[in-house]
Amino acid sequence: MKHRLQFTGKKLIRMALLLLGVSIVTFLLMCASPLDPLQTNVGQAALGTMSPEQIAKLEAYWGVDTPPLTRYLGWLSDVLKGDFGTSLLYRQPVISVIGQRLVSSFWLLLSAWVISGVLGLAMGVIAGAFRGRWPDRLIRGYCFLISSTPSFWLAILLLLIFAVWLGWLPIGLSVPAGMDAAAVTAADRLRHAILPALTLSITGVANIALHTREKMIDVLESDYVLFARARGESEISIILRHGLRNVALPALTLQFASVSEIIGGSVLVEQVFSYPGLGQAAVTAGLGSDLPLLLGITVVTAAIVFAGNLIADLLYGVIDPKIRKGASRG
Amino acid sequence: MEPILQIEHLSVYFTQYEHGPRSSAFQKRQLAAVKDLSLEITPGQIVAVVGASGSGKSLLAHSILGILPYNSHMEGKIRYNGETLTEKKARKLRGKEIFLIPQGVTYLDPLMKVGAQLRKGKKDPETKRRCRSALERYGLGADVEELYPFELSGGMARRVLIASAVTEKPRLIIADEPTPGLDARSAKRILSHFRELADEGAGILFITHDLELALSIADEVAVFYAGETIEKAKAEDFGKPENLRHPYTRALWYAMPEHGFRAVGGLQPYAGDDRKGCPYAGQCTACREDCRTEGQIPLVEYRGGEVRCLHPDEMR
Q: What would the pLDDT profile of B116-143 be if each residue is shown by its tens digit?
């Protein structure tokens, strides 16, 4: 137990350092961008009508001449107090914008993550077990095809088929347009989330399936599977008892590492479906020069991705007997 | 007594792809890893197959058990208890009458407890009892069942592997290098378990690279060289080098520490090499013209054993 606490503590320190690094790099990139803080805050039209004195006053108010380091430290100290600043586009605190968007994206991301994980694992195990035969060829073919397909293109394709031609599913947004927020049902939300979740799952599956297949082949060529076979265990028992067991640990790592891919994919996919989630907010913030929001989203998504990997590491300690017993002894 | 296992002219081939001589496309090629092997084991007998690493010994074990890798196939005949041992029949018999005892702990699933592995997923009390008593026979307590393979010491792992063969009543045991890395005393102790199993009526095929160890326990020895059995001899034939028939076997005898530790120059040819005639031609001191030009050299009976040599008495 003590060992695991130490391990977690070390990881958390690393997480803090990582987030610090990410925020510094993002901040530097923003400093290097040609954006004029005054123009983004006031708007070009308003700026044009102002007198030089007014502009000078505003520049002083916004702190345009403050050196980057001072600005960054100011931002950081506010963040440590829980204040991520105000979003320019939404005119709300960044943290509440991210909160709303995260809630709206959460089920979408989670379902895509779970579906791609479960399906990818199953497909990888099947492909590995049938190595070289038609189920394997089929699954591999699918994975290569999907891996080389841009996800936004796939999103547009699904949109065309299911929303435009067949008309089964809504074309975009997360709730029906023009409906009173109180009248929106869970079924409405679900119908709107199906296509984006499907797109994310379809693309997420390929990577997981291909990796799982490789691992499954390794396992099936291992000495212990040979011995299990020599002892008369059936192929199905070998795949279920030895295959799944030994594929589970790497699959777990893969699954939690894929959090980053799902979030990355959601940026493009939400854009295609006009789905008001975190991904879309990132695009809006980027295109609309909303620096506080962009910075906030970058830091929060980095934290989510790191948390995913941290959970994988911790679960490893619970599941892998070598780590579990090794830790309890040491 | 009726032999429990008869192997007749067994060859195991691997399919390989390589650049063709003229075209740039890959061509399929059959590569013989085991060539024209014949062997017999009667119940209670220990037959050792001795050969350097890479001579195709393990494939012999796999072909008897019907678990050759997917890119290989075998020719020839294997009879078990007088009947042809088809792959289907082997599937039924392995783990029930035919057992493999492998080299070491890597043959146990690293993520499964020892007991669960020995029981092969069955949970009925009869299976549990038999697993229990098999471990007990080799001095392993109930606590061992709850251990993962990485928690076993090397010696324990080997005893677990042997115990895995006595969960049922074995009639044929194939031990594939069961004692690597053990000092002579521990190895002999492990081997004494095999003698015991043979005395209980099992036939044992003992595959090893260690001639000295093989002689300490086997009744008969088949010597493997580049995938071919080049000599079959009784264990007592190894008492004097004059009793041996093939120049390679004699070279092995002289290479043993107590017989002078003399090594022969040259290397064993790779199984896939295209060659004619005697595989040992490159290392043989008595090699003649016809040794290199003759096709497959036959295994012939000679002075109470068998030898694959055109001029077995040249060396004397």
A: 988 888 888 988 998 998 898 888 888 9
Give residue A213's pLDDT.
94
Q: Is the pLDDT of residue B148 over 70?
A: yes
CA distance A55 to A286: 25
Task: Output the domain CATH number for residue A165.
Answer: 1.10.3720.10
Reported confidence tier of residue A329, pLDDT bands at 50, 70, 90: low
Domain that holds residue A119: 94-329
Residues A197 and A239 in one domain: yes
Structure tokens at A283: 């695009």
Point out which residues pair with B94 in neighbouring strands.
Answer: B98
This model of the complex carries an ipTM of 0.86
- Let me know: does A140 contact A213? Beta carbons within 8 Å: yes
What is the mean predicted confidence (pLDDT) over A45-49? Answer: 74
Number of domains in chain A: 2
According to the model, what pLDDT value does residue B267 have? 77
Closest to B171 (Cα-Cα) out of B64, B288, B51, B34:
B64
- Tokens 């008495």 identify what position? B313
d(CA B272, CA B291): 19
Q: How far apart are CA A225 and CA A247, in angstroms?
A: 13
Express each pLDDT in B181-197 by its tens digit: 777 777 888 888 889 88
Contacts of B100 in chain A (CB under 8 A): 227, 230-231
Q: Which of A83, A116, A141 is the last residue of a domain?
A: A83
Mutation for testing the A interface, residue in B59, B88, B106, B111 having most A CBs under 10 Å? B111
Instruction: Name residues whose C-beta falls within 8 Å of residue B264's C-beta, 6 or more positions apart in sequence.
Output: B251, B255, B283, B285
Q: What is the pLDDT of residues A70-87, one digit of tens each?
A: 888 888 888 888 888 888
The torsion region of residue B12 among left (phi > 0), alpha (psi -120 to 50) and beta comes to: beta
> Kind and range of the H or E element at B26?
strand B26-41
Q: What's the CA gap between A75 and A142, in Å, rounded?
A: 46
Residues A39 and A135 in one domain: no
Q: From the list B67, B96, B111, which residue is nearest A246 (CB)?
A: B111
CB contact under 8 A, A223 and B99: no
Angle (CA) B223 B228 B232, round 5° = 35
For range B85-106, the mean pLDDT: 88
CB B111 within 8 A of CB A320: yes
User: CB–CB of B246/B237 below 8 Å?
Assistant: no
